[in-house]
Amino acid sequence: MKIEPFRLNAEHVALDFVNTLDDRYLSTGPRELLPTYAHLLRFCRQAGLLTHAEAARLGELPDASQEKGLRSAIALRETLARVFYRCVDGHSPSAEDRIALERWSVACARHRELRWIEGRLAWRWKALAGEAEAPALLLAQQALELLLSDQPPRLHACAAETCRWLFLDTSKNRTRRWCDMKTCGNRAKARRYNATHQN
Hints:
By secondary structure, the chain is mainly alpha-helical. The chain contains seven helices and six strands; from the N terminus they run αββααααββαββα. The longest helix has 26 residues.
């Protein structure tokens, strides 16, 4: 069976991660794109957060550890979803979610150390090879860097009401409206065409 790649079109891995709960606003309910730890590892591999060897080692962890790692990542994703969507709507994150992000920041700090590399100090991850929460920690660090950067003003949600996938508008004139012009954009164009050509 052919494995479909993840659609990574948000211009930032943390937003692509939030988008792995597809159809979040559809009346029939959302569709989970990360049903297993293996899917989470594949997402991190495709996004460039894990090497093939790292993902393979994590994939050999006991089932109970993998389940815990997946639960942790999903909890992080939903915290990030609440925070990012509130940012899109011009609201500050809730106190509860800010505290949750602080906890993730502390957890990330525990797994990093300063190294002297190529003539400068740089953070390097340590002891992640056997840590089932490695994907969540890597994703949390990416999300925190985005939230603390000057990028959030360019944060948008797809204009399709039933989609609302997140993305950074990196277009030259800052007019991007759709997560993907080939999907939501074309559907909107088709709806407008049909509405204007009905008898």
